Amino acid sequence: MENCIRASGDFLFLDIKAVPGASKSALGEIREGRLKVRIAAAPEDGKANEELRSFLAKALGLPKKELVIETGEKTRLKTLRLPISAKEKLENLLPEQLTQRSQRHKG
Description:
By secondary structure, the protein is of the alpha+beta class. It is built from two helices and six strands, in the order ββββαββα.
């Protein structure tokens, strides 16, 4: 499992670094124990947080209400709480994104 993910009880915790104001929401690389997530929303009035939750919920096939910003509501460094049932989907999503990214850099 990637070092940005940890399990505790019935939950997974995903450490991210949010990058608001992107032209398109997308997953980035993992650095310093955090998954970089570009967010297609401005960091004002909670818009970036809502887009972050919507984007990840769609990517994981989860209802948005199951993704909770545990810490970092007003900062770029955030920890999200997800149900433990999302573990396999999350593990599959991260390597896929990292593989696609490395293939683009090679070409």
